[in-house]
Amino acid sequence: MSNDIKIRVDDFLVGDFSKPKATHKQAAKALSYFEENNIKYYLACVLDYTTEDDIKFIQKELPNAVPLYHGNQHNFDRWNLPKNSIGWRNDFQGRSLPYLQTKIKEFKDRFSYSNIMGIVAPFNSFSQDILDIIVQHNFSIACTGPETKNLPSQKNLNFHNLKVYHSEGIYYSFKETVASTIHRIDTMPENYLMCYHLLEIKC
């Protein structure tokens, strides 16, 4: 795997419309296993909810985190759309090309310290437009999940030359400790990542 990274952590620092943004203290506690054991991991950052102080926190306090693009609003502005409508659980579908281009450039500019550019789509739901744009901006990684396989809107997407990492099944952890699940990476299929959700990690 790229840089031997086998883990992704979603939802820095938000992931649910009904829950408050996590604090730096909460994030540091949830991610302490990786930091204390010097384990590199992809950290999926929601762009519009990530401040400059948050970025400084990542750089200073989370040296093992490699930030990836986790959409712009995590679909908060369209949270209550009817199921399977355009944009339901998809932060990119139905957005204008200029908007998506601007947001990708913003992510690259704000996280320019990182030498790895990749995407973790909120709800694992992509659009062809966002995949086309990130390739133009030299992104190299795309992280997929159950929805990428199962939602009709995700069929026949072209991931171009992106390195695609998948997470599913026992490699998609909710409400468990990292210490009790980290061993699963030794049994993962090729090109899989062990996935955690920041706000769900049991500490």
Q: Assign the CATH architecture.
A: Alpha-Beta Barrel
Q: What's the rounded overall pLDDT mean?
A: 95
* Counted beta strands: 7
Q: Specify the structural class.
A: alpha/beta
- Rg, nearest Å: 16 Å
Low-confidence stretches: none
**How is the largest sheet built, in terms of strand order?**
3-2-1-7
State the name of the first-level CATH class. Answer: Alpha Beta
- Give the count of structural domains: 1
Taken in chain order, the helices and strands follow as: EHHEHEHEHEHEHE
Q: What's the number of helices?
A: 7
Largest sheet: 4 strands, parallel
Helix content: 25-40%
Using the alpha-carbon principal axes, give the shape: globular
Give structural attributes:
7 strands, 203 residues, three-stranded parallel beta sheet, 27% helix, 7 helices, alpha/beta, TIM Barrel
